[in-house]
Design brief:
It is built from eleven helices and nine strands. By secondary structure, the protein is α/β, with parallel strands linked by helices. The strands form three sheets. Strands 2, 3, 4, 7 and 8 form a five-stranded parallel β-sheet that branches. The chain has a two-stranded parallel ribbon with strand order 1-9. It has a two-stranded parallel sheet with strand order 5-6. Helix 4 packs parallel to helix 10 and helix 9 packs parallel to helix 10. It binds zinc ion. The site of zinc ion has 6 residues, from strand 2.
């Protein structure tokens, strides 16, 4: 598949009602996925993915990862991965619970699961577990994106305040983990518009990163409920949003991993899929 074909197949743009039905998040109870439409990324005919049994049987923390041909990061909003991507981008937001951030970090280290965290630097969890996260970040298994410093609705802020929110968090990520999160930012609650996008782009955050499918765990729900949402949304090429906020998530993690294995889905960070 050439790049232009791939790019046409990308789920880009969040202007339709489809995307609008999926935006609310990070508010307890507000981000249960709505809409039953099937994202185009999963319906396009896809070349058979080529799982690469690259190395000999590897120790368990390094699961086999299909080789991908990276495509340029799309201009505009990302809500999914290129059609045919044989796995998901599992993204995790906020970090209101230090215990859940720790559980995610240990889970990643134990299973090799590739994750993208959208961090709010105001949450102490990221600093408290920086030593645990840093090797995963350094190896590229875990990517860090910008979810603003303290989670405001950016559509209600002026341009300067939007940029301050992003850059305060940007500097936190740079200082704490030595990474540059650009161009990926996730607007809190999924709230953004053309003005927000312009203000963010002016400081290098050119890619609002939304999702197509939610574990709905920004609020306090049970592990069983979370697994139920995963059964619905863990599908090829989906960007799925989860949260490190409430303990129900901790019990769900091994079951989510088992679900991925059962479905033959790999996990990819955004950097695994897109060139910056
Ligand atoms: Zn959030």
């Amino acid at each position: 598949m050439d790049h232009s074909t791939t790019r046409r197949a990308l789920l880009v743009g969040a202007t339709g009602s489809l995307a609008a039905g999926l935006l609310a998040a990070c508010t307890p109870g507000a981000d249960a996925p709505r809409g039953s439409a099937t994202p185009t990324a999963t319906t396009a005919p896809t070349p058979s993915p080529t799982p690469t049994p690259t190395t000999a049987p590897t120790p368990s923390p390094t699961p086999t990862r299909p080789a991908l041909t990276k495509v340029p990061v799309p201009h505009g909003t990302v809500t999914g991965l290129p059609a045919g991507t044989p796995g998901i981008a599992w993204t995790v937001d906020d970090g209101a619970s230090s215990e859940v951030v720790e559980a995610y970090a240990r889970f990643a280290a134990e299973t090799g699961t590739r994750l993208t965290f959208f961090v709010n630097g105001v949450r102490p969890s990221w600093t408290e577990h920086a030593d645990l996260l840093r090797p995963l970040v350094d190896s590229g298994q875990v990517q860090l994106g910008n979810h603003t410093w303290d989670h405001p609705a950016l559509t209600k802020l002026g341009d300067q305040a939007i940029q301050d929110e992003l850059m305060r968090n940007h500097e936190f990520l740079e200082r704490t983990f030595g990474v540059d999160a650009r161009p990926y930012f996730r607007p809190p609650y999924g709230y953004h518009d053309a003005r927000v996008d312009r203000a963010a782009a002016a400081v290098g955050y050119t890619t609002p990163t939304l999702w197509y499918g939610s574990l709905a765990d920004s609020g306090d729900i049970s592990s069983d409920q979370i697994v139920g949402f995963a059964e619905q949304w863990f599908q090829p090429a989906h960007v799925v949003i989860g949260h490190a906020n409430f303990p129900g998530t901790i019990g769900a993690l091994p079951r989510l991993h088992a679900l991925l294995e059962q479905r033959g889905l790999a996990t990819f960070t955004l950097d695994d899929v897109f060139t910056r």
